User: What shape does this take?
Amino acid sequence: MEDSARAPQGWADASAPARPAASSPANQTIGSSVDVRSVTKYYGHFRAADDISLSVSPGEFITLLGPSGSGKTTLLNLVAGFQKIDAGEILVDGKPIHHVPTHKRGFGMVFQGYALFPNMTVTQNVAFPLRMAGVDRQTAERRVAETLEIMRMSDHAHKAPSQMSGGQQQRVAIARAIVMRPKVVLMDEPLSALDRRLRESIQIEIRDLHQTLGSTILFVTHDQGEALTMSDRIAVLNAGHIVQVGTPVEIYRHPVDRFVASFVGESNLIEAEVMQKRGDMMTLRNRAGYTFSARSRNAIDVGKATVLVRPERITISNEAGKNSIPVTVTSALFLGEILRIEAEMEGGEKLLIRCSDSAHRGLPAIGGTLHASWGADDCWMLS
Amino acid sequence: MSAPALDLPAAGSRAVPFSQRLRNPIWLLAPAVIFLSFIYLVPLIDLIRISFNGSTPWIHFERVFSLPLYWDSLVRTMGISVTVAILCCIFGYPTALMIHRTRGWVQVFVATTIILPYFIAILIRTYSWMVLLGRNGPINKLAVALGIFDEPMQLLFNRGAVLLGMTAVLLPIMVLSIYSSVARLDSGLTRAAAASGAGPIATFWRVLLPLTLPGAGAGFLLVFVMGLGFFITPTLLGGPGDQMFAMHITQQANFVTSEGFLQALGVVLLVITLVVVGVAGRFLGFEFLWGGGKLAEAHESKSRSGASAPHRRTAGMVVADTLGWPILRALSKLPGSVGRVTVSAMTIFVIATLIVPIVAVAIISFSHASYMTFPPPSYSLRWYEEFFTDSAWIEAFLNSLSIAVISAVMAVALGASAAMGIVRSKIVGKTLIMLLIVSPVIVPPVVLGLSLYGLYLRTGLDGTIGGLAAAHAIGGLPIVVVIVSASLQSVSRDLERAAAVHGASPMTVFRMVTLPAIAPGLAAATFFAFLHSFDELVLTLFLTGPRLQTLPLRLWADVNYQLNPVLAVVSTLEVLLVIGGIILARPVLARPQRAQ
Assistant: This one.
């Protein structure tokens, strides 16, 4: 109840990472840099992490994104020290930490299942790191109260974890992770157990918290939408490798391969042949023989190519135009603010289109013919 | 306002430091393994060695197998055990289903009536059958009153009484084993079957039965193996024609001359038991012994090959298809309530056989009569007074109490540490170590007692409280390890990690997170280890001296000598002890459920 009543405080714009910090400087920590260098981890003969290198700047919010089994949680566990690395090194502020036992690394961490101590109250849970660090009682009480205040959990201070909702438990878990103002906070799919609305509101809360605290945050998720909205940078993992590291905009607009293109966002991967290239401008021909132009900084000279066109970049029209390709509608859904249309090009290649319903045309007829087109700048070449 | 300073050692040191190797949880297994090696494995090996001590190595075994007395008894033992296992299966299945299907107080009642007898000494439960079936017992009285018999019949000392008594004693094991696999089933499965048009009988045949067969198989084997070593029940309820193999060993033990031959008898029983368990373990996985899932072996991730193996049609599936479907179609014409009524009726029968004897004994304990008769002609506390004023009984009770306390402490200390080692270390061959620790459960107590006899005589441990406590701890240890490792496995790894990442050292993590989480399991394990020792009779028969009497020993002597109501008093007190223990443990046991 209480969670849904709280409206998001502002719109997150993934392309503008720098936002004004709304905090008093006294609370601000300077986050640590985290350097993962050629880290490898085996489970038996299975390489869970394969020669992974990743540099995280101080105060950065970096997301490890990947499907299950991609090695993202393994990497986080290695940074936390739950597992020993088999090769490579991990440095925090330039100092190697991979031989330091977990409890001396001084991180904060939020877990997927909250992992609140069931035998302690909210206050005791949040005070736990302070108690372990030997902080004196008065300071500890003040810091716990402060932190609960930030997480708006002060009213629940004396409850047991089992008496609270999932969202409340997760807020307490976050409070526990940040109570020491750690230089590095690790988050292992912290929102995956929450329902969608709660998840969105806590996403924004964590984003804001990051601005307030200044800690470096390593955030693991398999939800690409979450990664795009929250991160300064995203590291996409697959099969134990880091496939691409970049800002959300880069990852979305310029994925390095088919995997990233299809894992992050919806995508059309159009097989085509390069007919002509002049500078970064190309003319391509798809399988059915229609030509279109594309401008891409990774333009290629000749031969077969896979072209990524995001569904929302495609425009549809009832009449054929220059560069347009006729498609047959196979399904059309009304999603409120947009229409989601699945269509087939000649030759059976599928095309997904998301377009606004601005003209209030309503849904196109199934089986009808539309003419799809996109701008040369909306294309991105995949190797 | 900064993070605690990082304590950074020099980088690049690849070798694991010695202190860290010492901290490896594998060392936690050491105390239990050393304890079991000295007091369990070595004596058993010694037993085997002595059995080959003769003019020729195999002479004693040749004698065992050439004398029809032993051969017949061996065949009889197998026959009785199989029969009992089958009976337990037939009656255990509906009962387990009933526990699963009922809700609220009915479920609590059914479950309690099954579990309660499980904790009461076999001796006492057998004794209560003697009371029930006796010439002046309630069954005879009732049958005469109803005109079924003309005069009281001899219902005791025959094969039927042995089968009934053993089935009643072993039934809870079967029910718990089947129930554990029934409870694991996704409740959506039966609904899915019903939604797909399967009637209750078809659902049982095609969905419930195949999925719970492993549990039933495990129960069958446990009952069969335990039946092989049975001694108390057939001795008390059987006639001269019902001699089981374990009884020969205790009888021979009275003759010192049979050194070697006696051990050979023990080895034969041991080998048969181990072969049965070994063959069963090959097919079922040895996990059936501790009723749990497979242990997480080191490097488990690569063992996914099983999932991709082609699905083979087993002979059982072919039979089920060709025979099953026509029968099912025929049965589905019966009204749906037939199955439900059968299950309920069988459950009620099972509950009656488990509870009636205990209740009858409790009533008799308040009898005023000086002999066993039911219903008592008048009621008094006369026999309670007799028990509490008899210094021999009280001394035996106090001896049992101190032995049980010491034994429970030993079992819990060794067992809890071993459980930590089993669950937390990453070693190959966990199953093997678990097998060693749990194996005392299946070794017939008679064989164990025989093997320890020599050791105790030599070391002067016989007839000492410490010696008996250690011997009882052999059987208490598996109970503790099984319970504590189950509760350790349910402790969330993330909870411990959350403590570690926020600054708690391994010891602090254990004290503040792990220990509170496993406390209910530890409490239960302590109670069960205590009861195990408190009830232990067979080992004690071998290992005690004339100076040291325990409660089960006195009961045993009196049951064989004269059936007086004092025994009923002792039995009733023991039942009260078990009930009291369970009630005391309830708030502790109920806690983890509330926390989740």
In short: The radius of gyration of chain A is 24 Å. Chain A has two domains: 2-107+182-258, 267-382. Residues 1-25 of chain A have pLDDT under 50 and may be disordered. Chain A touches chain B through 48 residues (CB under 8 Å).
